[in-house]
Model the fold of this input.
Amino acid sequence: MATINIENVTKSFGEVEVIPSLDLQVADGEFVVLVGPSGCGKTTTLRMIAGLETATSGTVSIGSRDVTHLRPGLRNCAMVFQSYALFPHMTVGENITYGMKVRGEDKQKAHAAMKEASRILNLDDYLDRKPAELSGGQRQRVAIGRALVRDPDVFLFDEPLSNLDAKLRIEMRTEIKQLHRRLKSTIVYVTHDQVEAMTMADRVVVMQGGVIEQAADPITLYERPRNLFVASFIGAPSMNMLAGQVAMEDGQPVFVSNNGFRVPAPAHLATAAGEAMVLGIRPEHTGEDSSLGPCIKATVIEMEPLGPHTLLIGKVGDEKFTAQMPASNKSQPDDVVDVYLDRSKLHFFRASDGLALRESA
Amino acid sequence: MSVRDLKGGKRYWVLSACLVWLVFTLFPLYWVAITSLKSPVDVVGGPTYIPFVDFQPTLKAWKDLFSGARGGFFSTFWASTIVGLSASVIATLVGSMAAYALVRFPFKVRLASGIIFFIVAMGGYLLGSEVFGVNPAMASIVAFCVALALSIFLNRFALPGAVLGNDDIIFWFVSQRLFPPIVVAFALFLLYTEMGKLGFKMTDTYFGLTLAYVAFSLPIVVWLMRDFIAILPVDVEEAALVENVPSWRIFFGIVLPMARPGLIATFVITLAFVWNEFLFALFLTNSKWQTLPILVAGQNSQRGDEWWAISAAALVAIIPMVIIAGLLGRLMRSGLTIGAVK
Done:
């Protein structure tokens, strides 16, 4: 097991700069998830760690070794691909041991490693089958098994669950997490699914346009997003954003929305008086309980009953707004409803640069 | 839409049309088969169609063929078989490697270095043979090697002019099949006889004929295999790369097995081409390594059109290909699904 150190790495494909400059440290045994929209450079970053792409400049180290210009096979990484990338003409057993066989490792050792991997991954009954005869989840386990027997310094996962159906994805999520707990290995995992990122990671790295927007543990990311992008990317349903500005009334800062409602703002926003501001509030921090905090009026577009609660999909002025109401709320489309915002969960982002303004920060 | 979806009358119309087509395609084969069993009298005395009814079948043509009364049948069959198989195996293998390289690695060939190659090769040959009086074969070999080395070396520098990519190289390969083969056949014959003068006997040898067929089959193999390899998922090769599998093992252990259906199809097409090839065999062989098409054509020379003998020889030329296409066709179908693991 080892640390990963990415320093000042840039990557261009021809004229196109995919990663302007990236610094990322992964601790030994850490489960890091790179997440972001398509084209944000997360897969390129992973492939640069694996050696399938070479960094245009900067250095990539694994443990104490500088591997920037080392070919993939010598980096001692194991990679699990989105398409599983199993060798279609080999049985499950052969797939798992192929790498060991090629590296000329002892046959008995390979067999023992294969047995161990198949036991961990519940593949014992399928060892003689070809990949075409397996289900998606089984194929993914074979791909993980192939990585396991490698006993690598680093595990790399490239969107491994996105070809699976929703139920299987949740199961595999748990399996990979348990695997990590058991092996205590360093894992870098790429996904575009923020739920996957939040549920699995020790630390989530949110990327956009080749730049790290925020790298933090899931709860920090959720509670204290550094900027507008992270705030809107993390959380489902996503955070409501209302544009407005900060005004001073009676010496107290007040957020005045472009739609006309007023929300008392925390004292530290006094320094930002007069600036354009975006108010962020997550749907789960709204409700019909008047003790929560300030009130705004939302026009209902649609109600989505989910069982434990009902989502109110609506508009505040001409801005979209989603509120989480108790299941008992029976509002109809076009009703105008009072929605209360939890005053302790309000986020304020400066409109000019999107950065969150926080008391302590 | 399938014929199965059709109802009633329509279905019979389609079926009868298919039957007519079947008869149309099978009749020539049938005709050849029965003609090979006819005696000379039955062939020239007007059309006869059904054995034992309008004529008495005889094995005379076949006996003549196998006894070697009409040219060395066994040696010809043997020559066709080993030249055909070895040329197809080599061409498929080498062509697949070229196709793989052209699919996976970007190449840059500067037009200028190509022109330099042409000038040096041609100029060197002319200089050697015309001015210095060197033997033409030696002059061309030396000029070719010097030109190749020079152009590869110069290609590393930023020469002015267009830069050709992989698609251009593919087109260059295929373009070799665009001009009439007779042009190549003449040139090849001259080259081979010149090499013979140097002491390397090339005409009427296994090596010479196989080499010519490999060279002439390569364009088709590269062109076909490129498409078969391009559809393979690159992830699988990357997975092997991460596992530290060396490139040659990735090619032989992973790429070729995954491309098996395409490989077999290409092999069969190449084999059919070599097996049926007439022109090169005519130019480059005379006795020892003559192939079946030459034998078949030779049946009508001395004593007029002896159709019974031609038919027997033609059937011998057809049957092995039918068997091979049948066997490998089955393998091809069973393998078609293998690359499709998602």
